[in-house]
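Before we proceed, please read the two lines closing this message. Let me know whether the structure tokens fit the sequence:

…
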Amino acid sequence: MASPKNRVSKMRKRQRVASLEKPILAEVSTCPECGAAKRTHRACPKCGAYNGRKVLKSAE
């Protein structure tokens, strides 16, 4: 098992952890069917459309 050769400073450790906690804002887009905000490459939670066709049953 690998063991650390040198101590990792507080700054270096916190920078590594902070990069994992940042929200990914670029993954939010608008649905072309209903105009609601949705994550990219996923079906719309409002209308259930993905890639121009219905894939999920909508609540409406």
About this structure: Helices lie at 10-21. Residues 10-21 form the longest helix (12 residues).
